[in-house]
Design brief:
- The chain has a domain at 31-137: Arc Repressor Mutant, subunit A (Orthogonal Bundle).
- Helix 3 (51-59) crosses helix 4 (70-82).
- It has helices at 2-16, 36-46, 51-59, 70-82, 106-140, and strands at 49-50, 86-91, 99-104.
- The chain is mostly helical.
Length: 159
């Protein structure tokens, strides 16, 4: 009961926030999944890599929406290794500092496949929500406001 109250209260607070139409403030608020773990596994499924290189690949923005936190990536690598989804070894062959090279294991490939199924399920659910919203929008006759009338996608007036 206590958790439900907190959840409802947090929804009320989020809904009561006023929009000032600056810096994407009209975008929906709330935590969106970053899917870092499957992205790291996907990078390693393509080939052996080290932590900094994985972070740089993630920063290119192909697999994730935002720049990942380096600490989060290293925590994920440690967790994946602890669960034997990846293995690591120090590479001291080249000049310079040693690099910890990560490789995906067979169980890691299976775990990545389970992630892919999970993501497909989430995608299907999100597509259903978008489809329902689109049908609702069509049936209620909502029309987009012109950019002169509003400066944000939520239809709030210009400040």
């Amino acid at each position: 009961m206590y958790y439900i109250y907190i959840y409802v209260f947090s929804i009320y607070i989020n809904m009561s926030l006023k929009c000032n139409c600056q810096e994407n403030s009209c975008r929906p608020h709330g935590k969106t999944p970053r899917f870092l773990e499957p992205c790291v596994l996907l990078i390693l499924a393509r080939g052996m890599s080290y932590g900094y290189e994985i972070i740089e690949m993630l920063k290119k923005g192909i697999l994730v929406e935002t720049n990942p936190d380096a600490g989060a990536v290293y925590r994920i690598l440690r967790c994946l290794e602890k669960n034997q989804y990846i293995i690591s070894a120090w590479n001291t062959a080249k000049a310079g500092a040693a690099k910890r090279m990560y490789t995906i294991t067979d169980s890691g490939r299976g775990y990545l496949a389970r992630w892919a199924e999970n993501i497909k399920t989430k995608r299907d659910c999100l597509n259903s929500i978008l489809k329902e919203y689109s049908e609702l929008k069509k049936s209620s006759g909502q029309k987009k406001k012109t950019t002169r009338e509003s400066s944000c996608p939520e239809g709030h007036p210009k400040p």
